[in-house]
Amino acid sequence: MSGSAPRPVRRRTFVLGSAAAAGSAALAGPLAFTARAASFGYRDDGSNYVIDTGADLVFKVSKANGDLTSLVYRGAEYQGYGGKNSHVESGLGTSTVTIKQSGSTILVSVAHGTLKHYYAARSGENNVYLWTNKADASVSATRYIVRVKAGKFLNDEPDSYTYAPTTIESADVFAKPDGQTRSKHYSKHRVADYDYIGWSAGNVGLWMVRSNHEKASGGPFYRSLLRHQSADGGGLYEILYYGENQTETQRFGLQGPYVIAFTDGGAPSSSLYHGNLTTPWADSLGISGYVAAGGRGKVAGVGISGRDTAYPYTVGLANSAAQYWGSARSSDGYFSIEGALPGTYTLTIFKGELAVHTTSATVAAGSTTTLNTITVPSSNDPSNAKAIWRIGDWDGTPNGFKNATLMTYAHPSDARAAAWTGNVVIGSGSETSAFPAYIWKDVNSGLLVYFKLSAAQAAAAHTLRIGVTTAYANGRPRVTVNDWVSAIPSPPTQPGTRSLTVGSYRGNNHTFTYSVPAAAWLTDPGQYNVLKIEVVSGSGTTAYLSAGTSIDALDLLA
To answer: Which residues have a Cβ under 8 Å from the Cβ of 18 and sit 6 or more positions away?
Structure first.
């Protein structure tokens, strides 16, 4: 994340069409290929079903466990590293695997207990379409990983390049000799920031095009694993549910389609995004949990008033069964969310990543729910409160604070990070950029903020607010103003896993408020008052795994 306001959220929903349109489902752009000399179809080699797309791609699915055991594109094998196959989670084990061809579509069905997984191929396309239906918690299935052979692709992107000599945390965070850190956890992107991830080398591109995440958890701003690269190969992820720094309970049901796509080296076509991928050919395949376009609905809002136009706004729909989101138009706040399953949802309006309004919306199959202009009450946005001083702004992120940008793709110990210590003087002009994005009990607790008050201001009590975006090990701020010491606040509900050290500040936004009495202030307008911020907790270990928290904003109200 940069020090500026978050980038606008791009909504993307796979729209599922009707069977009547099956003949027009071919993709355009780099994902579309003219059928080659090979014949579309499949065969049984005894251990695998071998599917020839009739284009440049031939892939194999194990008849024993549903693993993807081969991805041969233009005669070269791309599947596999470390002797491992591509599969759901770390492999399902013994499963029932069946195959059928319906005209120009081949569907492989994998059943393992209550879990159902599917691979589909279309004649003349170099794509593998996937769906996963996790019906309950009896089967561990949180991801699909495409394992790619070593030497096929190489990059040094922040979220992928992990082969480094020194392990610095839990055997999954590493330091290179130059002090830069790498981990597969450092995705850098929120779910809403990407449509696909992958690699390109010469005239070959291999991509994972993500699903609409309607059955995932965490919302549009969640960060999770995207790529992995090590000495023996690389991996591309579609995360179906991930528990690290997770803010929601797990949803169950069909997730997909997501797509393994080969191209001539370019990125997948933009026709694949923003609801343009239609799979009407899948309507009649019998995929468990599949809901076609006719069984879905739409929510559209005329506009949103009371916005701060300096920020992008996102509208989210969520209930226990599904989640969706869309960007609000910058000019008037108009929004449209298509392809939603029927039901009643909590509708949340986010300024940046800060929820500033909630209401409800009901989706009905085959229809559009139109909402009149929604007004965000002024009091719902903490930025509207008049402040004597403010560090940062209230947008639900640590944007603008020291090291905030780096922390989405590096460990706090990274050599590129500025010192986490250092005090701040109100009126210096660098209050926000000098204030650290994160505060830990064992690293930089006890930060000082110096500020002056007029005689009139010092004669009154004031409210001090500190907004946080997540916390590790129940870390929360206790404040001291000159000689006055606040009580220790109760910890808010936050994820119980690592967060600040694995590239994510996304937890539950929370505001701590402190009523500072008039007696706490210095009465001489020429003197600096001193605010000390400490992190307190009885949990955590040491250094960057001690109790800590991420800062959204802090201010002293008038």
So the answer is: 280, 283, 292, 293, 294
246 class by beta-carbon count within 10 Å (0-12 exposed, 13-18 middle, 19+ buried) = buried
In DSSP terms, which residues pair with 390 in a beta bridge? 555
pLDDT tens per residue across span 345-392 = 999 999 999 999 999 999 999 999 999 999 999 999 999 999 999 999
Output the DSSP codes for 174-188. EE-TTS-EE-TT---
* Dihedrals phi, psi of 408, to nearest 5 degrees: -85, -5
Residue 60 predicted with pLDDT over 60: yes
Q: Considering only CA atoms, which of 196, 198, 207, 203 is closest in space to residue 264?
A: 203
| 202: CB partners within 8 A, 6+ apart | 265
- Tell me if residue 149 falls in helix, strand or coil: strand
Sign of CA pseudo-dihedral 64, 69, 72, 73: positive
184 pLDDT tier (thresholds 50, 70, 90): confident
Q: Residue 185: which residues within 8 A CB-CB, separation 6 or more?
A: 159, 172, 173, 225, 244, 502, 503, 504
Which amino acid, one-letter code, is at 535?
Answer: V
Is the Cα torsion angle 494, 495, 497, 499 positive or negative in sign?
negative
Which residues, other chains included, contact 542 with Cβ-Cβ below 8 Å and sequence gap of 6+?
A: 442
SS3 state at 260: strand
Q: Which among 59, 71, 23, 13 is positioned nearest to 256, based on CA atoms? A: 13
pTM (2 decimals)?
0.91
Q: Which two tokens stand for residue 142?
A: 């949180």
CB atoms within 10 A of CB 342: 16
Alpha-carbon distance values, 312 to 194, 307, 353 (Å): 16, 9, 9
Sign of the Cα torsion 403, 216, 329, 383 reads negative
Tell me the two tokens of residue 532. 């000390």
Nearest to 349 by CA among 301, 398, 297, 298: 301
Residue 483 Cα distances to 447, 461, 463, angstroms: 15, 15, 16
144, 258 in Cβ contact below 8 A?
yes
Quick one: which H or E segment has residue 531?
A: strand 529-536
Task: Give SS3 for 106.
Answer: strand
Q: What is the mean pLDDT of residues 142-160?
A: 78
Q: Are 103 and 110 in contact (CB under 8 A)?
A: no
DSSP for 460-475? S-EEEEEEEEEEETT-
| C-alpha torsion angle, residues 400, 405, 406, 407 (rounded to 10) | 90
Asked whether 85 and 17 are in contact (CB, 8 A), the reply is no
Q: How far, in Å, CA of 453 to CA of 482, rounded?
A: 13
Phi and psi for 368 in degrees, rounded to 5? -110, 130
Task: Take residue 26 and report the two structure tokens written for it.
Answer: 């071919």
